[in-house]
Amino acid sequence: MVATDGKQEAASFIHHYQETGYHPLVINEFHSKLLVSAQLRTGKSYSSNRIVEELREIMPMIQGKYSKHIRFRGDSAFYSDELMTYLEGMNCRYFIRTKSFSKLTNKITDIISNRKIDITQYTPQHPYYGEIRYRMTNSTATRRVCYKAYHVMDQHGQVSLLPVIYCVITNQENGSPKSVMDFYEERGNSENFTKELKDDFNGVKLSHREFLKNEIEFLISSLSYNIFHMFQNMILENDDRKIRMNTYRSKYQKIAVRVVKHARQVELHFSSAYPRQDLFNRYMNKVLLQ
Which pairing describes strands 71-74 and 93-97: parallel, antiparallel, or unpaired? Predict the structure, then answer.
């Protein structure tokens, strides 16, 4: 979410974050980190609002020869039959965390009990993995749900009475439940992409009273984020391909140089104490050759 200050148009109190602000929707491509979509939505918007409409605009642009390799990950806010049905129609695999409905957790608990599995032997580091077929409602399709279950101890060393059950619904029929869960949990890195957008590109500093102006400001931050990551993928090398923008600024922008201008050229004279002169020049030459 994007917190607001004062009375900014279309901002609302968001109970999940216990703050007043806007509720943007962002979709990242995992490997390049690029934003495929960025929308500033009103504070009253739920996490999955307009996700299907947005995907209808995005999917035709990213399909083609890569369509069989597109995989969608989303947290429990995207646990929606409408979204899953749309992705199934587009032959897109999805991995979405389920909501903790008692019907689902009770069914899994009964299966574990009937199999006489001692769940107290399983921990968050070494959980029990399984899968079931599950229908969200009587009118929806039966889908694969993979889960892991384990017990936790409190601060006094007492084992919890009921196991923790963590589920992911998917239309990928091959692969073990563990591989499905492991793939979904890589989604945590996407949170870091959003954090970079907010912290390194001022995506959270929307200073206007009018929503439209704030929306434009948010889109400028999103565009800047994408330009940097395109530059990072095309120009930077080795470990520099993993750094965030603020690290890049401290390594290659906030440096002391003397600028010497001639008739047809500009020269940068680095301080002898700057250790990255050769790398800076190599990156600069790559930019000039693009």
Answer: parallel
Q: What are the angstrom distances between the C-alpha of 125 and each of 100, 128, 129, 168, 185?
A: 21, 10, 12, 18, 13
Residue 159 forms beta bridges with which residues? Answer: 153
Tens place of pLDDT per residue across the chain (290 aa): 888 888 899 999 888 788 899 999 999 999 899 999 999 999 999 888 889 999 999 888 876 656 668 899 999 989 999 999 999 998 899 999 998 788 999 999 999 999 999 988 899 999 999 999 999 888 899 999 999 999 887 767 676 778 899 999 999 999 999 999 999 999 888 888 999 999 999 998 888 999 999 999 999 999 999 999 999 999 999 999 999 999 999 999 988 888 999 888 888 888 888 899 899 989 989 998 87
Q: At a CB cut-off of 8 Å and minimum separation 6, what does 266 contact?
A: 259, 260
Residue 138: count other Cβ atoms within 10 Å of its Cβ. Answer: 5
pTM of full prediction above 0.70: yes
